[in-house]
Amino acid sequence: MATNNYIRKRVELLVFLSILLFWPATLWAGIAEIKVATASSMKLVFEEIGKEFHDENPEIIVRLSFGSSGNFFSQIVHGAPYDVFFSSDTNYPKQLVKKGKSLGDTPVALYAIGRIVLWVPDSVELDVKSKKANTLLSSKVKKIALANPKHAPYGRAAIEWMKKSRIYSQVKSRFVLGENISQATQFVHTQAAQAGILALSLVGNSKMKSTGSFWEIPKDQHSPIEQGFLILKDTQNPLAARSFAEFVTGPKGTRILKKYGFDPLPVPRPVEGDCCNLPLQTTFPGRN
Questions:
Q1: What would the pLDDT profile of 202-230 be if each residue is shown by its tens digit?
Q2: Same structural domain for residues 52 and 134?
Q3: Same domain for 239 and 196
């Protein structure tokens, strides 16, 4: 009887070891979750990027949060548990590096260049494409929506353009400031404002196209809206965070960025210096 028990236990052990040997590697790695703080101008883009990334990497769950870059900066400084920060500028990520919030010596890297547009609802009955900046001088435009320039890079670009166009002093009393560019878009879409200086990425959907029209503000009328990202020091899943960043800056992410009107960079590069000793290219356990 003792011999039979011994043989049975040995067989059970061998079966167990065989299961472990051939168990899918992704299950060994477990399910990783990353929290991504993303500028509100990227909402439509990152919803699509996040879905495609998860379809290819089902072992990684991506939790997206959208808001103003300035507010995310403050939250991260005070310990908010994000893994990656995709800003609508490079200044906030660079400040985080100075505060010791980057993972190792990972630098701030560019991933896209944003564009701003002047959007007007059809109900206002103004031809924004022909009137361009003069649209804002019309008596029909009682309120102008834009993101708060104190903490939103798209708002700062809007102010810079209006000053360069020499209309700022004439229209500044009519500003309605959104907490972020998404809120500014909501203001003008619901006609709380009769014009809005918005992100190109947020006006290309069917909802905006069917209710208004826009004029693309020329690139040379404001400083480039260079957008950078940073992998954060307190990430709990650095491999997953880098894999997601690699996807955003790779061919598939670049295709989606272009679709929404961003000027993506051919190759992601550090914002300043050559300080990146931690490559974005990462291999997950069980993946080639």
A1: 998 889 999 999 999 999 999 999 999 99
A2: no
A3: no
Query: Is residue 89 a contact partner of residue 253, using CB atoms and an 8 Å limit?
Result: no
The whole-model pTM stands at 0.77
φ, ψ (nearest 5 deg) of residue 282: -140, 140
Q: What are phi and psi of 117, to 5 degrees?
A: -135, 160
Rounded Cα distance, 147 and 61, in Å? 30
Name 139's Cβ contacts closer than 8 Å, sequence gap at least 6: none
Burial call 233-243: b when 16+ CB within 10 Å, e when fewer: bebebbbbbbb
State the residue for tokens 């957008």. 227
Total domains in the chain come to 2
* Pair (42, 79) in one structural domain: yes
Closest by Cα among 130, 116, 100 to 199? 116
Angle at CA of residue 190, ends 154 and 141, nearest 5°: 70
- Measured in residues, the chain has a length of 288
pLDDT tens digits, one per residue of 10-64: 544 444 334 334 434 333 345 899 999 999 889 999 999 999 999 999 999 999 9
